[in-house]
Specification:
11% helix, 4-stranded antiparallel β-sheet
């Protein structure tokens, strides 16, 4: 069984972790507003790997007033007029109890304290931009709080989508004006729409695919599809038609970066008694709109059962070829393109895994044989036990990993090539037999 490495011990419980575009790892959590002595933090750092040992280098820690339960990174393109190049500014939308705070992450170089020579190291600063507070005029404001958020970008539009405990979905248009000046970015926001009581209970999950379709999942065991273009409900996804247990509900939805793959996790709706305690992960593949299944343009490809546990987090790799899940007991499950268990990891966390992310290595494009494809290397997990663990799941030998990826591409997406090779072999043997036959026939005739 594969071991993990304790990457960091925290002084607060972490609830959310993300890999940012520039290689930074961001994680957040805390003890909330209660004065228990446990702080609330948003932390940034790099992971380095050398001699089979990983190290987390913290470069910034920002203290927040409340615990950040969920956050979503997003990127805005800023044009640099001097160098005629384009730079992506990094922002984070962080969900607190009754507000969403927007932060800007500014990469920088920090000078080291060395009298002998001038040295610099990578750093980053976090700057508060603005906040969006739930409407306080509502009668039920005291009961309403934010449970999940999502950000969707389309052309130059940036939508912030908020899910609440009352089942409401709020959609805001974020209007940025940075005037090509990273230090003076300003944010205005406008509420575009509100789906009142979209769900009859707390909203668990919000995800958007490339087509601008919003998937919402609630604790009412419902999954709805919404059009962000027309701001209206499309349909209900009747997922029970694809599972054999009526006690299940969807917990997570994840898409690959190109929305070619969709992964769903199912957990028991009612626990205890004679009810099953199994969880499931499904892999779906995108199809043409003409052949929609229950309102979605994805086709179910495979279902995997995970016995006697409840999944608490789910993430996919950028390419969608790997999916990883964590459970309520602190165990990690990793599956490959064919939904086969890739590694059997030891249970390292002593409590619930709250979130995880993939960390990437050198970049190679398998098809074009150049450095453009992010290769998977590590899984980083966080837990209520206040540890950050790192799992290595592919051989760090670059040549072997490169060969494995080529083989995976050949056997997963090029059956036509395999059939062509077999056909070529058949005609080659047939031609060889024909030549031999003609040769002996001519010899006999002569």
């Amino acid at each position: 069984m594969a071991d993990s490495q304790v990457l960091r011990r925290l002084d607060y419980p972490a609830y959310c972790i993300k890999l940012l575009e520039n290689g930074l790892v961001a994680m957040a959590g805390g003890g909330g507003t209660a004065k228990t002595g446990v702080g609330n933090s948003l932390e940034l750092g790099f992971i380095s790997y050398k001699n089979n040992l990983a190290e987390f280098k913290q470069i910034h820690q920002f203290q927040s007033d409340d615990a950040i339960m969920k956050f979503v990174p997003f990127y805005l393109e800023r044009h640099n007029l001097k160098s005629e190049s384009k730079i992506n500014d990094i922002y984070i939308a962080a969900a607190l109890n009754q507000s969403v705070e927007i932060y800007q992450i500014q990469s920088c170089l920090k000078k080291l304290d060395d009298k002998n020579k001038t040295q610099f190291e990578a750093g980053a600063n976090v700057r508060f931009i603005s906040s969006i507070v739930l409407d306080q005029n509502e009668d039920k404001f005291s009961e309403n709080s934010i449970t999940t958020i999502q950000v969707y970008r389309r052309d130059k539009k940036v939508y912030l989508i908020i899910g609440t405990t009352l089942g409401t979905i709020l959609i805001y248009d974020l209007l940025f004006d940075n005037n090509n000046n990273i230090t003076n970015a300003k944010l205005n926001f406008e509420k575009l729409h509100e789906f009142n009581e979209a769900h009859s209970n707390e909203i668990d999950e919000l995800q958007v695919n490339d087509d601008g379709v919003l998937f919402s999942v609630g604790k009412d065991s419902k999954c709805f599809l919404w059009s962000l273009e027309k701001l209206k409900k499309i349909d209900e996804f009747k997922f029970l038609n694809f599972v054999n247990d009526s006690n299940l509900r969807i917990k997570h939805i994840r898409f690959s970066n190109d929305s070619k793959f969709m992964y769903l996790s199912y957990i028991p709706r009612i626990r205890g008694g004679n009810k099953s305690m199994n969880s499931f992960i499904q892999k779906w593949v995108k199809i043409k709109d003409i052949a929609k299944n229950e309102g979605i343009n994805f086709k179910l490809e495979k279902t995997v059962k995970i016995r006697n546990t409840v999944l608490t987090c789910l993430q996919t790799s950028k390419d969608g070829y790997f999916v990883c899940a964590g459970d309520c007991e602190g165990k990690v499950y990793l599956y490959d393109y064919d939904m086969k268990k890739l590694e059997d990891f030891k249970k390292q966390h002593s409590s619930v895994i709250t979130d995880l992310c993939f960390y990437y290595d050198e970049v190679f494009d398998v098809k074009k044989l150049n450095k453009k494809f992010d290769m998977n290397k590590f899984i980083v997990t966080i837990s209520i036990d206040r540890t950050v663990q790192l799992y290595k799941f592919l051989n760090t030998n670059l040549t072997k990993r490169f060969t494995d990826l080529i083989n995976r591409e050949l056997y997963s997406s090029s059956s036509f090539l395999i059939y062509s090779i077999d056909l070529f072999k058949f005609f080659f043997i047939f031609l060889l037999i024909l030549i031999c036959f003609c040769y002996f026939f001519i010899r006999i005739e002569s």
